[in-house]
Amino acid sequence: MTNTRAGKRFRSQEWFDNPNNPGMTALYVERYQNQAYTRGELQGEKPIIGIANTGSDIAPCNKIHVFLMDRIKAGIRDGGGIPMEFPVHPIQETGKRPTAALDRNLAYLSLVEVLHGYPIDGVVLTTGCDKTTPAMLMGAATVDIPAIALNGGPMLDGWWKGKRAGSGTIVWESRRLLSEGKIDYEEFMSRVCASAPSLGHCNSMGTASTMNAMAEALGMSLTGNSAIPAPFRERMNMAYETGKRIVAMVYEDLKPSDILTREAFENAIIVNGAIGGSTNAPPHLQAIARHAGVKLNVKDWETIGFKVPLLLNMQPAGEYLGESFFRAGGVPAIMGELRKAGRLHDGVMTATGKTMGENLEGWESRDLDVIKTVANPLRENAGFLVLSGNLFDSALMKTSVISADFRKRFLSTPGKEGIYEARAVVFEGPEDYHDRINDPDLKIDETTILFIRGVGCVGYPGSAEVVNMQPPDAVIKAGINHLPTVGDGRQSGTSESPSILNASPESVVGGGLAYLRTGDMVRLDLNASRMDALVDEAEWQARKDAWTPPEIHNQTPWQEIYRTHVGQLADGGCLELATAYQKVARDLPRD
Ligand code: FES
Ligand code: MG
Description:
Layout: H1 13-16, H2 22-32, H3 39-45, E1 48-53, H4 64-79, E2 82-87, H5 101-117, E3 122-127, H6 132-143, E4 147-151, E5 159-160, E6 163-164, H7 169-179, H8 185-193, H9 207-218, H10 233-252, H11 256-259, H12 262-275, H13 281-292, H14 300-303, H15 322-327, H16 330-340, H17 356-360, E7 384-387, E8 394-398, H18 404-411, E9 419-427, H19 429-436, E10 449-452, H20 473-477, E11 485-487, E12 500-504, E13 521-525, E14 530-533, H21 537-546, H22 557-565
Parallel strand pairs: 1-2, 1-3, 3-4, 9-10, 10-11
Antiparallel strand pairs: 5-6, 7-8, 8-12, 9-13, 13-14
Bound molecules: FE2/S2 (inorganic) cluster and magnesium ion.
């Protein structure tokens, strides 16, 4: 049986329609046709479209996908394909201990196995909560069959007493009020829960909205996919259209390798600056690029991304939330404004089958209060700085969240603008931080720099979102909300803290942070993109020589496998051995 692809067989026919091995073919067909499918459907009349479902009761940020499945499947059917839904290992940012980050590579691995080992011709990747999006894109890049991303969408805007209550951002604000004694535990809980009024992922520009904007900026979704709130009618329409489109992509043989080019990643880096995106985007994009075989470097985030203006007025860098972002035009409006200013690569191919420039034709801001123009941005130079020095080879600093107060306090000494020297206080992970942050013996005052280590990919494991450490209660009561903080872990994309984070290599593998001691003086120099411990070289070397790696305690087999093979955040936190496997769909599995 042949299909309409000019005599070219579908990949799924190697399973379902292979007269050279009638025994196996019959076994494949008999069990799949015992559910919804006829023999003809399986044997090449139409392509088989997998739907990677990341939603479930245990993954509430993506639960909406359970309800979108009908619309995705209807779109696939109407497009002329056969839908086959399958589950994905859950990655719930606010559920999984010790970190959801540990499971990104596990979900990636299992997606690669499913797409490689089953009769699937193309796939809809359902995305949403932070790590689900990169895990899906990494898997699709490794396998390289036609693939399209469908976001579940953010929750509706949260409100508390007439003010917008954004995911995560309300937590950081309320934690400070709790420390100051201005609210009690009950009000703290009510405030935070008010930020989650419906199904969907975080409604601020945290890692979820960022990574879905990245998927769209890379060209891996339909135009406008990322910002539609989960409960909106338009979200169901997008599910249907995405299902319909993936079938055409199979006929066009439009694969991730046609879309995920170096230029596409540069577009994504620029969009991340314009939306005030999460500091989690660099490691995730790095991971996707490596699995796609595209050369990207953490320093690209500064060279390409730093001088990008902040266009989006959305928490944590601004004031609005997801509903306003959507109504102002979402990612296509951001990209439309960047494009008008000549800031994007127009010619890159996308999942629509058209170039990015064609997709963006006519798109611009629909609400200048929410999405600004390049000529009149919220602020200039809103991207990341990539610092280096004797404490790390690289660490990120998100400049779009540096408040005027923070800049004045720490970075505006006359004659030394952008330079700050202070005493370090070092914590060994979040438990140590919580135990000792209010200890008067540490002498933390409004000038101190706080460090946390042992919280990177190998150390935590998975790298924890803990670098945005709150100052001691006494310092907060004195009116100072942020001290400079530094660490080898990450921080939540919803945090408004201008931390220096993702320090690589991490301390437990012998990175420079390992040798820092409480009481050392440290210099931050934003003009030179450097941070250094001011410890003389002989002393620093002596500390290195005396250092022994801390003991690692694995609690599960996966933790041990992960720690054995994971790389550093600067390199995407990939399973290093996995990056050698490229375009694996070309190598059919044995029968
Ligand atoms: Fe899942 Fe923010 S916790 S999207
Ligand atoms: Mg997070």
